[in-house]
Amino acid sequence: MPRLVLQAVTSGLTLGSVYAIVALGFVVIYQATRVLNFAHGEIVMLGAMIGLILHTGAGLPYWPTFVVVLMLVALVGMLIERVAYRPLMGSPLSTVIMATAAVGQIIRSVVRLLRAEELSFFPPMFSMQPLVLGPVVVTPLNIGITLIAVMLVIGFAALFYYTTLGTAMRGTSQNQVAAWLVGISVPRMFSMIWGISAALGAAAGLLIAPLVLVRPDMGVIAMKAFVGAVLGGFNSLAGAIVGSLLLGVLENLIGVFISNAFKDVIVFGILILVLLVRPSGLLGKPELQRV
Predict the structure, then answer these.
(1) Is 237 within 8 Å of 27 (Cβ atoms)?
(2) In Å, how far from its chain's centre is CA 56?
(3) Do residues 190 and 32 touch, judged by C-beta distance below 8 A?
(4) What's the rounded Cα separation, in Å, for the pair 126 and 54?
(5) Per-residue pLDDT of the chain (291 residues; tens, 9 = 90+)
(6) Closest listed residue to residue 75, CA positions, set 204, 187, 195
(7) Contact, 283 vs 229, CB < 8 A?
(8) Which residues lie closer than 8 Å to 154 by C-beta, 6 or more apart?
(9) SS3 annotation, the chain
(10) Gap between the Cα atoms of 84 and 180, Å rounded
(11) Which residue pairs from 188-191 have beta carbons closer than 8 angstroms and sit at least 24 positions apart in sequence?
(12) Buried b (16+ CB within 10 A) or exposed e, 150-162
């Protein structure tokens, strides 16, 4: 039994690390604009789709494909900000959120128009030959996905906390008026934030693609990442990471010891419970609103 638990936890960390990248994409936009980007799942799917076309269709090697996809999807994120967010600044938040949901549906519909409901296998970037490491069995693919996810999280944290751009982004997130007064271009920062968020989503799509079939509806993974961000704290980058890792592990444990059929029921039940008991999440801070 302990060995089975350890195996489930190890596999769950791989899944949770991908959730963490997607969750960061949600949180960084929310902290800057207080908007939930409901096109983020389609961004994840778009990253996998473009990667599939470039890697298996055009024959581009995996790592150049990774870089090109991040750049292209970052531009898509910046376009979404320009079309669906910036013209609606000052509108009710519900209006902006609905606009992002509409953009997500447009992206999904365009992909369906081009590829119908085709299911595609994305070639793994590492070997899938099982390796026995003590009490657990892993594959180089699982290890590689986890390590790349960790490096992306570390890279994003370094950008956000230790660079001039990151300082400007944090300043814009905390106080837009003050950012204007010190010479920061708020629209430019918003564009950068949406682009970085989209790049994170695309990276998650590329990482998860070898583990699932690439399809127009694969963006539903973003809903799990959203739950992870809420669990850890939607106003905390560290909380989003911790919550996503916990969710990945919990999801695997449920699948092993209860049933795969109940995973979604329990996961979204946890979301409701967290919202009822501790809306700020495990590491988040309560937000005061003026009335």
Answers:
(1) yes
(2) 24
(3) yes
(4) 18
(5) 678 888 889 999 999 999 999 999 999 999 888 889 999 999 999 999 999 999 998 999 999 999 999 999 999 999 999 998 999 988 888 899 999 999 999 999 999 998 877 788 999 989 999 988 888 889 999 999 999 999 999 999 999 889 998 899 888 888 888 888 888 898 999 999 999 999 999 999 999 999 888 999 998 889 999 999 999 988 888 999 999 999 999 999 988 888 888 888 888 888 888 889 988 888 887 765 544
(6) 195
(7) no
(8) none
(9) CHHHHHHHHHHHHHHHHHHHHHHHHHHHHHHHHCCCCCCHHHHHHHHHHHHHHHHHHCCCCHHHHHHHHHHHHHHHHHHHHHHHHHHHCCCCHHHHHHHHHHHHHHHHHHHHHHHCCCCECCCCCCCCCCEEECCEEECHHHHHHHHHHHHHHHHHHHHHHHCHHHHHHHHHHHCHHHHHHCCCCHHHHHHHHHHHHHHHHHHHHHHHHHHCCECCCHHHHHHHHHHHHHHHCCCCHHHHHHHHHHHHHHHHHHHHHCCHHHHHHHHHHHHHHHHHHCCCCCCCCCCCCCC
(10) 22
(11) 189/32, 190/32, 190/33, 190/81, 190/85, 190/86, 191/78, 191/81, 191/82
(12) eebbeebeeebee
Other residues' Cβ atoms within 10 Å of the Cβ of residue 119: 12
Instruction: Specify the residue for token string 């994840």.
Output: 44
138, β-bridge pairs: 131
